[in-house]
Every structure is written in C-alpha cells, then in structure tokens.
Amino acid sequence: MAHSDSKIKVGILGASGYTGAEAMRLLLRHPSAEICLLTADRKAGQPVADVYPHLGGHGLPDMVSIEDADWSGVDVVFCGLPHGTTQELIAALPAGVKVVDMSADFRLDDPATYAEWYGHEHRALALQKEAVYGLTELYRERIRSARLVACPGCYPTATLLSLVPLVKGGLIDADDLVIDAKSGITGAGRGLKQNTLFSEAGEGLSPYSIGAHRHAPEIEQEIAKAAGRAAEDIRVNFVPHLIPMSRGEMITSHVRLTGGARAADLKAALQSAFAGEPFVRILNGKDVPQTQMVRGSNNCVINVFEDRIPGRAIVISVIDNLVKGSSGQAVQNMNLMFILPETLGLEQVALFP
Amino acid sequence: MAHSDSKIKVGILGASGYTGAEAMRLLLRHPSAEICLLTADRKAGQPVADVYPHLGGHGLPDMVSIEDADWSGVDVVFCGLPHGTTQELIAALPAGVKVVDMSADFRLDDPATYAEWYGHEHRALALQKEAVYGLTELYRERIRSARLVACPGCYPTATLLSLVPLVKGGLIDADDLVIDAKSGITGAGRGLKQNTLFSEAGEGLSPYSIGAHRHAPEIEQEIAKAAGRAAEDIRVNFVPHLIPMSRGEMITSHVRLTGGARAADLKAALQSAFAGEPFVRILNGKDVPQTQMVRGSNNCVINVFEDRIPGRAIVISVIDNLVKGSSGQAVQNMNLMFILPETLGLEQVALFP
Amino acid sequence: MAHSDSKIKVGILGASGYTGAEAMRLLLRHPSAEICLLTADRKAGQPVADVYPHLGGHGLPDMVSIEDADWSGVDVVFCGLPHGTTQELIAALPAGVKVVDMSADFRLDDPATYAEWYGHEHRALALQKEAVYGLTELYRERIRSARLVACPGCYPTATLLSLVPLVKGGLIDADDLVIDAKSGITGAGRGLKQNTLFSEAGEGLSPYSIGAHRHAPEIEQEIAKAAGRAAEDIRVNFVPHLIPMSRGEMITSHVRLTGGARAADLKAALQSAFAGEPFVRILNGKDVPQTQMVRGSNNCVINVFEDRIPGRAIVISVIDNLVKGSSGQAVQNMNLMFILPETLGLEQVALFP
Amino acid sequence: MAHSDSKIKVGILGASGYTGAEAMRLLLRHPSAEICLLTADRKAGQPVADVYPHLGGHGLPDMVSIEDADWSGVDVVFCGLPHGTTQELIAALPAGVKVVDMSADFRLDDPATYAEWYGHEHRALALQKEAVYGLTELYRERIRSARLVACPGCYPTATLLSLVPLVKGGLIDADDLVIDAKSGITGAGRGLKQNTLFSEAGEGLSPYSIGAHRHAPEIEQEIAKAAGRAAEDIRVNFVPHLIPMSRGEMITSHVRLTGGARAADLKAALQSAFAGEPFVRILNGKDVPQTQMVRGSNNCVINVFEDRIPGRAIVISVIDNLVKGSSGQAVQNMNLMFILPETLGLEQVALFP
User: Fold this and answer.
1) How does strand D206-207 pair with strand D148-150?
2) Which of B110, B137, B157, B158 has the most CB atoms within 10 Å of its CB?
3) Which residue of B has its CA nearest to C301?
C-alpha cells in the first residue's frame, strides 16, 4: 500500500472486532483514504492476517496496543472499542485528530441517561457536548463540521431512518411505537459467548434484552426530537431478536396512524424525505424489504404496508448491521468530515446470493 | 412392522409433504398406532425411502394414489393435503373413519370467511359444521367425541395458547393485538419455490403476507370467542417473517394491558390456565423462550415480559411448527379421540444442540 | 421422575458438555434407566434448566461438583469429561460402579501412543488394560462383560464401521486409506472458541488438524487389528473438515481395491458383516448417504461407489456425531453391560427436515 | 448509468441465473465496462429488480428474450446459459462480438468426450477449435488474443490452480489424484430442485455425482496436458459434496509425491508458479485455507500440508465458486481480451464475517 500525502490517514482503534474488520474492508478500497494505524490491545504485535485471515496480503500495518500507537500523521480515527473505554481515550487524543466513534459512548445527549444504561458516569462530558449524532441522512450538515461524530447503533439507524420522517410529519403516534427488531449474530460482536456459538445460535431464534435494550433510549432521544418533545416523554416498545444469520438487520415497526393518515401517506413522506439520497431506497408497490437486498452494502431499504387493523400501518426497513449499521455509515461520515463525495468507498453492490 | 389388531390403523393422506413425514416419524414410535396407508398422488408407487430417505428401513407401506387407497381396516386418517382438496375427499370417506385434518379446510367456522381467504366456496358445508377446532388444550372435551378434528395452523397454535387465557381473563385489549410472527422455512412446505431455496432463504430474513396472512382470520375467530364477541369485530395485526432455520416458530405479541393488569398478572393467568398441562410450559422469572427449547418436541414454551411503555406487555411463545404446530398436535388429538393417554407417542425430549 | 429400584441408576460426569446433554436426552426416555447424578464442576449448584434450557421441567437433579457426588446407589457412570481428567477419577470410583467413558482416555491400547498424542503419561495404566473398546458392532461380546468401556471417537466410529469389514476381508489396501472426514460443529464441543462462533463458522468451510488429528491413531489401531498387523505399521491419511451444521458427520473414504475386488464386493461384505444389525444400514443401489438421514438417531448409513480410477472405490458413511458417535453408542453399550435389549432407549427415528 | 463511448458494452446472456447476477454485481462497478443488454427468456420483459431485488435501483436494462436482443454496439457477451444451448447461439452472433462463455459448452477439446458427458453431439465444432480455455493464470497469453473464451468450471478452477504446477513440475503422481471437493449450494444454480431447498440442504451434508461428475473430464484434460500425456490416459478420483452454505468451494487433494519430493517442495513450486499473481495467494506456514477467506472476492487461496502416510501430501485450495469459479474469472478474462489491467473491477476485499 503506497502511502500518499494526498490521502486521509486513518487509524482504527479496536481493530480486532467485527466493526474494525469491516472498516478495514471498506477503507482498503477507499480511493482517498489509507489505513496507517491499527490498535487492538489483546492482539498487539500480531499481523492482521493472524487476527483476520481474509485481510491478509493487503499490506496492512500490524496491530499495536493503544499505548504504542503513533499518532503522528493520523487525520482521523475510527473507534470500535467497547463502551466506556472510548471516552477518556478520545479526550487524550491530539487535538487535530478527527474522531468517528462507532461505540455507544457519545450517542446519548443526556449524561444521566448514559449513566443509567451503561452503569457508570460519563467520563468526557465536554466531548459529549461537542459530539454530533452521526445518522448521516438526518444530521448531514452538522457532521460536515464536526470533529467528533457519534455513529448511531445499528438498531437506531434502521429504526430512525424509517420512522423519523413519519414522526416529523405528524403521520404516526410517537406514543404508540412497537418496534420488533431482528438482527444477525455479528451484532453480538466477536467476543466469546455461549449463546453466539454456532451450535447454540444456529437453527434457532431468541429474543433478548426484552424491553430493556440499550438502543431503546437512543431511539427515544431521536424520536423525541422529531416530535418536538422531551426525551423522557417518549417510551418505545423495543424487542430485539437474534436471527441465525451473520449479517443483516430488520426493523418491523407497528405504528398507529394519526390525523387521518394512511399507509400511502407514510410512503410518500419517506419518498420525499429521502429523494436523491444515495443509500436509502423506498421500494415500489408492495415489494418486501429483505436483508438479502443489502448484504455488504451501505443501503437502507424501506417500505410501508397497510395493517389489518384500521388506523395502523407496518413499516419495514433493512440494513446490513456492519455497514450502514456501523462501519459503512462511519465511512460515510468521514467522507463528509473531509469534504469528499459522500459515496466514496461505499459503492459496493449487495452480495447475493 | 407387525400388524396387530389392538393397534389403531392410521392412514396418512398427502404423506409426501413435511407434515406427512413428521406424522410418520411420530407414529412409527407410537405404541398404540400403526401406519397402514400412505397416499401421495405424485409419488404413487414409490417406496417411502425414495421420497424420504431418512424413513427408509422402517417397513412402511409404499405410497399409493388416493384413488387406489384401500380403506378397509383404516381407523383414522391424517390429512396433510393442500387446502381445498381435503373437503370433498373427506366427505367421501367411509363413515367409520375418523379424521385428523392438518390442512386449513375446516378451521374457519364461517364459510364466507373461508371463501374470502381461500378463493373458492367451501365444498363440504355439513362437515364444516361438525368439525371441532383441534387446539387441544382449549377444546379437549369436544375433541374426545369428535369424528373430524381440524387442527389449527402453526401460527394460531402458538398465538392462541399464549393469548386466549389473557383475553378470556380480561387482562389484555383484544382490539390492540400486535402479533409479530417468525417461522422456520419448513412452514412453507416441500413444494418447489424460489424463495425457499437454500441460497435465497439462507443468511437472510424476509417478512411475507404482511397484514394479509391466512392465519389472521383463524386467530381472530378464536380471539373473538375468548372475548365473547363476534369474529368480524376483531382485527389483529399479524406479520409473519421467514427465518433461516428449518424448524421452529416464535410469536412475539405486543399487548395492551386492561383493567390495571400488570405483566405478572398475565403470567399468573397463563400458569393457572396451563397447570398440569403436559405440553405447555410457562418459564420461570425472566427466562427467555427460544425455539431451540422445543425442536422436535410437542411443547409450547411461553413467558411474559414487561414493556418499557407503561400499560403494555410482551408475550412470547415458541413451538416446533411441525410438531405442536402440526403433526404432533394431530397425534395428541388422535390420542384423545381414541381414549388413549394424551402424551402417547409424544414424549420426545427436544433435540438440542 | 419416580425412582424405581428396578431401574439402572446412572450418573453423568461432565454433564454440562454436549455429550452430557445428549446422554440426558436419551436416558430421560430410556425405560430401564434413570439419571440420579449429574456432575459439572463449573456449573455446580445450578439446575439443569439453567445449563440446558431445553432440558428444564424433566425433574433432573441439579448439577454438583465431582467432589460432592453421592455415589451410593449409582450403577453406572457416563463420563463426558475432557481428556486426561477421567483417568484418575475413574480409578477412584467405587468398585461396583460400571463406567461408560465417552472421553478419549481409554481408547488407545498403547500408553506410549496415548502420551504422544495427548501430551502426558497415562494415569491409570491398570484400568487401560481392562478397558474394552466400545465400538459395539465389532466388540459386542467383550462389552457385555466389561466394567469399563471406552467408547470410540465419533470419527473412528463412522470410519471403522465402514472400513473394518473391508480390511478384514482383504478387499482393500490398508496402506492406502485416504479418509476425508466432515463434521458438524458440535464436534468441537461447548467450550468457547472463536472458530466455533456462528459468525465465524457459518457460511464457511475449514479443514483442521490436517494429517494430525487425535482420532488418526485410534483409527490406525483398529485398522491394524483388522489387518492382523502391528498398530505402528499402519498410517492413514485423515483430514477432518468443519461443516456449517450442528450435528452430523460423514466419512468419505477413498480406497484401493486388492485381489481383484470390485465395489460390489465391498458392498456385499458390508451387507454380510452388518446383516441383522439394528443400527447399521447399507443403502440400496446408488443411494447416497446424507447426514440428514441420521440426525438425532443412533444409525450409521453406508454405501459403496465405483471410482473413475480403475482399482479404486469410494466408501461413504454417515452418523450423528452426538448419537452413534458418542452418547447413543454409550447407551447401546450400557444396554449390553446390563443385559438389556441393545436398542432400548435408542429407537428414535431421524429428525428430518 | 451514463453510457460512454469509451466503455466496453457488455451483454449478459442468461442473466437470470446466479452467474448472471454475479456478473452484474461485478460489472456494475467496473470502471471500463457497462451493461447494455440482459437476456433471460423466461423473465423477458421484467425489470432486473423483479428478478434480483438486490440489483434494483442501479439503472440496468430490462431483461429481454434472446430473440429480441439488440446486438448493435455490443462488444462482448457473457454467456451464463445452460449447457448445450450456447453453442448454436454463439455461432450465430455478429462476428465482431467477443464471447466469454461461463457455460460448459466449449471447455472440452474433444467433441467425443463432450458428447459422452453432455448427452448430445457438439453443435459448433468450428468454434470449439477456436475456443481458448479460460483458466486465466495458465492461459493468459492465449486469452489476450481470443475471440471466444471458455471459462472453466468452478471445481476445475480450484483444482487445476493448485495441482497443475505440481504435475508440471513432476512433483506428484498424475495417476493417483484423489480430489475430494466441497461446494456451497449456489453451485447447483437457481433452478428449482428439491435437494437445494433450505429445509433439505440446511443442517446436512450430501455427496453427489460420486465418481461421475462432469467436471472430472475437464480436470483430466488439463492434468493430462500438464503431464504431457493424452487426456484419455488420465483418470482422477473426484467426489463433490454439497455443503450447507451459499458460496464457497474447497478442493482437498490427497496426492502421492514423486521423485522424492516433499510437501515443502510442492509449496515452493506453487509459490514460484504464482509469484506476482494478483488473485492467487499461497498461505504462510501451516495457515489453513478457509472459504471464509475468499467470499465475494476473486481470490484463490492455497496451502500444502504433510500427510501422515509417508510419500503423500495434502493440497487445499479455496475459491468463491461464483467469483473466481465463474463470473469473476470471466471479468478477468474480459479485461485481458480488451487489453485492460487484469484486476479492473475485481478488487473487492472478501466479505467476512
């Protein structure tokens, strides 16, 4: 990999996790970025090929511990660290380094909510104030000028893209949102857990964190903003399920229509909200979103369906949790932060079958 | 397989489908039943081992066409035929033959509803009046004396077991039932369809028949009975999803509590309703139902969870769609119809991993 | 579970592993055995439902540590412990307790070979001499009178059943055995390993321990006996592959014919060797063994095929690695050791689809 | 998609199959090619989004029947038609149109061998003489000047890349090649077959066409050339297995060493043969090829291992059957035929997890 002064120099912190690997996959083919630093404390000293064999042979630097990182020349870091560890680390970075954070550390505006859900006080309150929520299609302008972007969780990304325009438009009841979520198993990360072993998760289906998942307050925060209400006023039903597939995520939202709206009005609102967006696609007619449509791509695919219950509708959106739900959206935000075309490095067509 | 006068002689009609195969699996080890007839029009003349290699070597009779069936000595038939074909056929059976129907042909009380959803007039109206809905735990007494039992669909089975006691008890609002359903791919049958090919369905997730699945009116019919209301008054939200696993089904019901009920009250009602039931298990504490718990068994596993939205709860139930959702429940009903212990032939422990 | 004096009292040591769980599944429905003791050091004090949710509600005893085990009344133990730990433990058991060992500890006759492959000296040499190799169909008579039976590994079971009669018959060259093995992921156990995570093992295929798997010397020992030669004279090619499925194992043996034998002669030899065997099935014609045929059952299914290279043939055998490859064969051996019908508790029909 | 005179205009014949879809995926992002024609007789008139939802929104032309194809301006066609149908069709194409054939129609030099394996006389003998076998790394120079390139089958690609240099180098015995092959289920195509349904193929493992697969003569033809012998002199053992994954293919070759060669010599020969090749990677040390390393990429990954049997070795190679095994190699060949950098449009990093 020839280093070039004209390319953005990227460091990936926490490169041994799945979001780190996915960031490597995307950035290796990004025409205006190059990876100059990879940190992974427990894998320090190892070549990438030992940690991710499919990434061998691409000339990537070896993994180093965060203490041994050489920040000189680094323009931007992608953080894929476990929650809680990112805050102090980012606070200590050289001032000129931009940050695209893929962890949960800076997503919640309210430090008290953070403390409640993550079990410890926030450790970088000043940075929290500065952080911009990185749901690109909704916060594009603020992201362009941000130093620290807090990329949304995968569930909030797919949920908010499909619901925020409807709440903003006064088409659905923000107090009656039933969000039934389904995710592939990469969403649980690369850590060793019994329930993500092949023989445990395969050929089976499990809900988890029922009514108590950490992405719920993040969704509520943004739904509240869209509704012009206080975050603590909004409570959503949110039930995630683990699906026996590696990638992909689907949000099935069961919504109550307001003001005489019909399913077709919801669809029109989404079409209008996302007209011209390169990565959001509202399907035609009754075409059904499937995770197969977005595997490996940065796309979000959405459609709206009539419910049998009068006055209700069903909104379905799908993303690849590791791309638009994490590392792809991170690259999209990096592009904005460096005044590059937003689609650069993100033009992969979905991999099917 | 030695024929014995003391055993129930069973014919399986439509034996080449998955419900037929599953009925064979269960009946082959049933101590008081023996299979004497297998029909499958397109496979007529073939040994079972050619149609289902895993069932070879068990001494089963060859498949015959329905026209060539020898009904002499047949005590009961299991029907696993496509909807619409069962009605006239059953009407023409010898009067002494009991019928456990696994198709959709006799589930709906109202012929007009049947015609609306299945696209043709009902062809055996007299039999329809006689048919008993075969959700064993709810209609046990009537099943005992029935000649024709219409086994419920897989989705209604898991849904109604978990919701009927709550509606009956006045604990949840029958007008606000959001039923998010997930099924393994055997639910789509053995017919050749592009969307059930391994390379299409694997590693992916698809909703289907959104708000328009044929199991919705069946659920509404029984919820209405539980609520003491007319079937046409009840409309449920029902969205099924195809999950990349062969067997297993989960119903995630998002319900609105009524009369000050709390999640714990729902659980207590279910515990009370199913106390002593051999095949229904209400989990302890916050233990989470998973389809892995019931694979290959006739069990239904249920639990209730608090929602983040005040006044709502989440009810989750799982079954094996081919066992309790079809052929297992059919055997359970046969046992009742022949005054046998209800658990006979159904004591398999779930297969995990 | 009512204790009955007439039933065999079984303890399962290492009950938290997959072979332990599978032994529980089978023994729970064994008409002449009952489980009275479950040990699992790291899960000591936990109810079975916490360790294996699908086994909840069956009245099994809680897990205890091996130190706290109450051996009074125990007739037989199933050992599913990691290799090396079983030897001293078994040596310390009350003399009257029979042992069905599912670990690798007593499979190799030669202590030096054991030490070479397992990295430590054998710790119970006297017991080793006493142990009978538990490949039921080959050592039935000796197993009947054994106190300690060392059940074969899963790979040796499927390999030896299909090859030993051919070597004994002088039909194939024992010096040119190419054994290409494929196993589902339960074969790697329930321990937490990165390569058995769903997202790592799913949608992929990996060979492992190429030319160096611990089951190779076990296969060589038995092939040597069949050939009437010394174990150290026989070397087999053995390459196992990890297949993205939970259960099931296939051995594709590429063999060189000797003495003018043809594929049909091999098949005839297998048919003759296994005539009347309840759990070994030689397929008709060119029917192809598939792991789907044996899932959840104790069967081994075999067939022989002509090769394109003159003078060679292909022998294919399949088993469920957790049943005939481990706990099912253990039950089969227990039945022999207690003079019970060999098929007791093992009559499950394969679960398909 | 802006049409540009400077881009190669590509037609894809048989675009509704998996190789057609994969060619679309790759060519949509090829900087020097554009798709101007898609034929699919049974899908004629349909937009791509109806046939392959993941390819909707990319501005591709609708599918047309082959009769309605407009050949004006077409520079090259990719043929993904069923075998036998391509021959006359290609013979009738305008003379200036180059052809990259992904079918089996022109792979076999000997028309008699073709007729034997494909069941009918070859229908374009003149073209057969002209066709160049499209295994890029072995026939690069001839491909550059070819008008008709016959891309190898997926199995021959992975097999020959790993074995031809060894046969050429006199390091292994061409008369004792045991080739145990494993493929994901996309290899069976998109046609509706019972054995490729999710519920049949999932959680299971099947060999097929044992000793009689159509790729065997293709492998023998090329091994014979490498050995400097007549094609009819070479017979290989070739046993393919269907693996429950969508993509990926592994060839486990069990080979006999000649002339005192050792495993390390084989590896050195491969390293030498493929030095500088962009798409062939020989792994370091004992690193194990896994299909996960190449999913979605055009790479072939190989390594060599010592066998336990003296004088033997094991060679393992993996590819993505739809990329290097089909459409990717087709694009690679197109690049050569149009004097473009060989890697153009093929630089995707493997998709893992």
Assistant:
1) unpaired
2) B158
3) B54
